[in-house]
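Re: export button greyed out
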Amino acid sequence: MNKIQVITSINHEEVEFLCEPQETLLDVLRETLGRTGTKEGCATGDCGACSVLVDDRLVCSCLVLAAETGGREITTIEGIATEEGLHPIQQKFLDHAALQCGICTPGLIIATKSLLDRHPDPDETTIRYWLAGNLCRCTGYDKIVRAVQDVARDLAGPA
Amino acid sequence: MAHVVFPGHLLAVTDGEAELDVPACNVRELLAALEQRFPDAGDELRKSTIAIDGLICQDAFLETLRPDSEVFFMPRIAGG
Amino acid sequence: MSESIDYKLVGTSPVRPDGVDKVTGRAQYGADLNLPNQIHGKVLRSPYAHARIKRIDTSRAMAMPGVYAVITGEDFPPPPEHGDVGGEAGGSIGDLARVIMARDKALYHGHAVAAVAARSLRIADEALAAIEVEYEVLEPVLDLDAAMAPGAPLLDENCFTKNLPEKTDKPSNIAEVMVLSRGDVDQGFEQADVIVEGEYRIPMAHQGYIEPHACIANTNEAGQSTVWCCTQAHFDFRAITAKVLNMNVADLKFIASEIGGGFGGKTVVYLEPLAVLLSLKARRPVKMKMTREEVFRATGPTSGTHCKIKVGAKKDGTLTAATAWMAYEAGAYAGSPMGAGAMTVFVPYDLENFKVEGYEVLLNKPKVGAYRAPGAPQSMHAMESAMDDLARELNMDPLDLRLKNAAEEGTRAPYGPKFPVIGLKECLRAAKAHPNYTRALPEGAGRGVAVGFWFNFGLQSSAEVHINENGTVTVVEGNPDIGGSRASMCIMAAETLGVPYESVRTLIGDTESTGFSNSTGGSRTTFATGMAVVRACEDIIAQCRARAAVTWGIDEDQVLWVDGQAIPASGVNDELKPLSLADIAENAAKTGGPLLSRASLTAKGAGPSFSVNIADLQVDRETGKIDVLAFTAIQDAGRAIHKAYVEGQLQGGAAQGLGWALNEEYIYNADGIMENAGFLDYRMPVASDLPMIDTHIVEVPNPRHPYGVRGVGETPIVAPLAATANAVRDAIGIRIHDLPLSPPRVLAALDAAGD
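Workaround output, generated via the alternate export path:
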């Protein structure tokens, strides 16, 4: 089968890969490029474990064809921490014990970043609806929501 | 001596006996005595969880039995 | 309640040692490993729920370029005739072998009938399509009533009901019966002023872990295999794989990856023997991962059930008698949580007269697996709903009714022995005193309460403790960390040794590098493996005292261990400077070599854990949709080692229980094909479905554990089912007996009541 050449940017780094037409961004991230931080829970767009940002838009990478991502800027969990250390969202997830098994955590952190980029001061309902595409089976979401609230409080700074 | 109680589902292998007193100083002796008395019961009894005076043990064998000990055989439990 | 002990670390909530890797995507789960030269395995699954396999022709698939191996039941040794896996959802090893790969019969839609290994997943899929299977399609048996009816089509002509008073020679789909009884129920009901009865059905439900099963096996020409997989029990997986493939345990090395949820579902082996065998034939590493659809169709959910309950009480609320009849789906092969259901149905109460009749039933659905407190949510949903009805009949507060009859230390449990110290009454009193119980409800909302329970268990555990040259500590144990257990082990080790939490790291060893441990399941890890860790740390302390004694040239009994350092006993040798763990480790070469210890044990005396839940909810009378307004989970943890992760167990179990109560169910069509095998249609709770889940940890320490641990993971899923059903009863004035309380069912109940 003829492969398609794609040049894109992942976490601000130019990446070139070959893919088959039916391969998803999730397939290419995990299998071709070895970026296994993005998880597969269903491959049908229902669980959010594979959440990434494409041009700052929150998507399930299992629903995006890899061949469509040429020239885009893709952000995955591997690109969230910086040289200064963990992103505040990552730190608050740890501080609040907002993960148990941790398989949904990369997707939830990406979704939270997307939320806070748009709504820096969300109320609980906004947080819950924004994260409704990311299944977590361990925590009951309580500590996740609290972690997100705490990040938002810190971002708002002293009143 | 220990007072042994079998649950309903084991009565098929204990000739219908639900309770009996068995002279035994530990579970090893108890199992041996029961197996001699109920030759068909050995497997089922060894697989069972055993409660000795309220202490629930899987794989009981060496536990000491007091003269007035109460021993219950229970289905094996593991959990999720 | 709990005696006050001044712990430094037990009961705190430090960041887990494996945390950074899990928030940055570094942590490697089942499907995250790739090996050089690896190929991909896929499973061909039965399109029929019940069929005889007449013939399988794999020749076309085998001839395809890029296909390296094809296996069917014929490539396996005969299923072992002896041996079984204990526990609620265990079964005979022979049957587990048939779940892994069907032999002469396919017993559920999705049953594995062949497997291939190929260069790519695409080629593997094409190869599966090229395998020809000739089936003789049989009538499927899909519900409990039909399966138990005389003349029902049989799944297994050699299944004779176990435990009947008289041996039977008539085969049946009823695999096993169980009876538990005490006293005289007829007399008990005669003494009753009020009797309530109810009949309850709950459909099959799945654990719903987010990570599908995955593994990679690398088998060499000598038949030695290394298997990397997501599992709750890599030692148990090694044992089952060895038995199913007739291999030597020593030729199998199992490495547990990080695990993306299990809840009991990853105590069962499905893929690993297939991958080992495919890899042996293909002489390459074989990676296998299930799709979500395969997880639903072909792994073990928990039993659908049918329970009938009758409870009698005097005017003052004293229970006089109770009976329960319960049937549990086992799925395609024997082994179900029916026994646990029978033992738990009346467990919270001091009951003189009761009778429980349990039936385990085969039908053409996947063989059930363990799911969090297996069997108890279904049976206790029935009893706790009946208790709610009884409280209404008696015009009593439902918590008071339960307190009046609650079991306590010395009460004889329905399964026989007397309870050791338990915290049920403490939980009930905590619920009564909780502000969430007395807070005013919004107009039209309802509130329900229910009790939950799990036995908790011990089994075998091993642990090693290594003291590094700078005095830091490495704990090695064999229980995959599914919800933060590394942190709990670090806390217990640091507390025992008297060193900072940060100086301890916990490692999960593979089957070749650490001692045997049973599964991470049954709420046993913090209890049993924790006990091994504490014991190994106590040995380190003894060694350190000896090292300090030889360093100082004094008697060992003149050395004390206080706050992480050796000090001379007071009065003599006061001039000696204390030696810290780091000091002793630095000097270890001169005092006897590296400091290391180990402990292995069969843990006994796990403490039963009771819970009480309070649910507040509102029912939309137009649509039947339920909004959960508030939820309070109260549970006796014995003692919480890592407080936040104990709260997390309570909250997560509540969410799973709420999902089961409100929406989750296996929906089958008439051919036995599950119609909702995906997360879109198998509707688990999402963030917007739930409120904050308030927790209250009761601590009635378990005297059999050095820190009082009972185990917390199982119990939280039990009470939400009845608490939710009782809250709906409170909100709409109608008892809906069956679950889930999905909008169509609630709407139908409202319509039937003429609402």
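The CA atoms of residues 466 and 699 of chain C lie 31 Å apart. The button fix ships in the next patch.
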